[in-house]
Amino acid sequence: MLIALCNIVKSSLTDLEMEMRWFDVRLANNYSKSILIREMSVMEKIWTPDPYFVNSKYSYFHLVSFPNFRMRVSPNGLVTYNLRVTLQPACQMIFCRFPHDRQQCDLRISSSSF
């Protein structure tokens, strides 16, 4: 969701939900349904990627009163991790027909330690 768009400094502020998936065979189990992880203390014991936005001027993961995340572990060890992030991408924007123009801003995501 686009939160703000400024044609003076040619920048935007975006709020998004990021979903990451990976397999961790150590978490495979014999349950018939996925396990929902709601406690931060449990989630901290599970390996998670450490993503960052390469072309972002500013970004943060939401921790408002409680961390904004959802984690599920499937019986086969598939981990699905959703979290909320707000960012200001560093994209060149041209507003020659503002507000009727179209902007495209690719987000480049990388990992700090992988």
List its salient traits:
114 residues; elongated; mainly beta; Acetylcholine Binding Protein, Chain: A; 8 strands; 4% helix
Largest sheet: 6 strands, antiparallel
Q: How many structural domains are formed by the residues?
A: 1
The CATH homologous superfamily: Neurotransmitter-gated ion-channel ligand-binding domain
The global form is elongated
CATH topology: Acetylcholine Binding Protein, Chain: A
Judging by the overall fold, what is the CATH architecture? Distorted Sandwich
Quote the beta fraction.
35-45%
The overall average pLDDT, rounded, is 80
Q: What's the total count of β strands?
A: 8
Description:
The chain is mainly β. It has one domain (2-111): Distorted Sandwich (Acetylcholine Binding Protein, Chain: A). 4% of the residues lie in helices and 44% in strands. It contains one helix and eight strands. The strands form two sheets. Strands 1, 2, 3, 5, 6 and 7 form a six-stranded antiparallel beta sheet that branches. Strands 4-8 form a two-stranded antiparallel sheet.
